[in-house]
Design brief:
About 45% of the residues lie in helices and about 20% in strands. With about 290 residues, it is of the alpha/beta class.
């Protein structure tokens, strides 16, 4: 029988749990409940909330038409403009933004007001990054990989070292970005000699989750990563685990399990993204035990 190792850090992080609990508490209070965007990137959770009457607002235009009830801001955060427009509706507004994301909003707002250019290391289409961009007083550059970082530096080749040192740049990160990639990108940007204010805003839960997933995958015969299709942090876990264990599977629920045991597996590893509920992790564990 194979040993099944489940990461202790698997599942809801503080910010996600806080956001999800907020919505369920509001459901208990009653009245029309809306979330501005999916509260988290997990289709199972969002589906359960919809069955309880919670409606997802997909745009600020939709939200503008709300005259009563409660609108809950998603955990990923929103821009200053969106925040102001939600406050102008007739609804009661509840902010469920992750506190670690709110901290980035403050850093970007204050640093850009102090004359710093803003660089966000992250996925430019992710709602968290879009929200962070919306708190800057100046245009923002989003860098996702080493190639983009190198291109940013190369575009500045005409500057002398003295001129580069006068260029004030504030670097922040999407909270769920790959920690190793963040360090690589910062190293590239730092070589130019800019006046850099670098804030590693990857949350501690992400650091812990990625390190633990890497360690388990390194010794596993099969590695399973559980997360929503649109969950950025879950997919990063999958990328990390796949580098350590070629036989890595990315699933949403136990129904997606399609394992073909060879019979000689010693260790089966399981981890899950920050937006994966405990019950889904337990269901996967139970089905893996039945197979192995």
């Amino acid at each position: 029988m194979a040993e099944i190792i489940t990461a202790k850090s698997a599942g809801f992080c503080f910010g996600v749990k806080r956001a999800v609990d907020t919505v369920y508490e509001e459901v208990e209070r009653g009245g029309p409940i809306y979330t501005y965007g999916p509260i988290i990137h997990n289709e199972e959770v969002v589906g359960d909330l919809e069955r309880r009457g919670v409606k997802v607002l997909d745009s600020i235009e939709q939200a503008a038409g709300i005259t009563s009830g409660t609108i809950i801001t998603r955990s990923h955060g929103i821009s200053r403009e969106e925040d102001e427009k939600l406050a102008a509706t007739g609804a009661r507004c509840v902010d469920a933004t992750c506190p670690f994301v709110k901290r980035i909003h403050r850093i970007v707002e204050e640093s850009s007001a102090d004359g710093y250019e803003i660089i966000i290391i992250g996925n430019p289409v992710h709602p968290e990054v879009k929200g962070i961009m919306g708190w800057s007083h100046v245009p923002v550059t989003v860098i996702e990989n080493r190639e983009q970082a190198a291109a940013f530096v190369e575009a500045d080749d005409g500057r002398s070292p003295e001129e580069a040192a006068q260029r004030k740049i504030c670097i922040v990160s999407q909270t769920t970005f790959n920690a190793n990639k963040f360090e690589e990108i910062v190293a590239i940007l730092s070589k130019k000699g800019y006046n850099v204010r670098c804030m590693n805003t990857i949350c501690n839960a992400t650091h812990e989750r990625q390190a633990e997933a890497r360690a388990i995958a390194a010794k596993a015969d099969i590695m399973i990563v559980i997360g929503g299709k649109s969950s950025s942090n879950s997919y990063k876990l999958y990328e990390i685990c796949r580098k350590e264990c070629a036989n890595t599977h990315f699933i949403q629920t136990w129904r997606d399990l399609n394992l073909s045991p060879a019979g000689n597996e010693q260790i089966i590893g399981i981890t899950a993204g920050a937006s994966t509920p405990k019950n889904i992790i337990e269901e996967v564990q139970n089905h893996v035990r039945a197979d192995f």
